[in-house]
Amino acid sequence: MEEPMYIKIHNQIKREIESHIYKVGSRIPSERQLALKFGVSRMTLRQAIKTLEDEGILEQRLGSGTYVANQKVQEKMSGIMSFTDITHANGQIPSSKLISYRVGKPSLSEMERLHLAKDQTILRMERIRYADNVPICYEVVTIPHKLILGMSKENISTHLYRTLEQNGYEIGRVTEHISAAIANENAARLLNAKKGEALITRLQVTELSSGEPFEYTRASYVADRFEFTFSK
Amino acid sequence: MEEPMYIKIHNQIKREIESHIYKVGSRIPSERQLALKFGVSRMTLRQAIKTLEDEGILEQRLGSGTYVANQKVQEKMSGIMSFTDITHANGQIPSSKLISYRVGKPSLSEMERLHLAKDQTILRMERIRYADNVPICYEVVTIPHKLILGMSKENISTHLYRTLEQNGYEIGRVTEHISAAIANENAARLLNAKKGEALITRLQVTELSSGEPFEYTRASYVADRFEFTFSK
DNA sequence: CAGTGGTCTAGACCACAAA
DNA sequence: TTGTGGTCTAGACCACTGA
Question: How many CB atoms lie within 10 A of CB A147?
Answer without folding.
Answer: 18
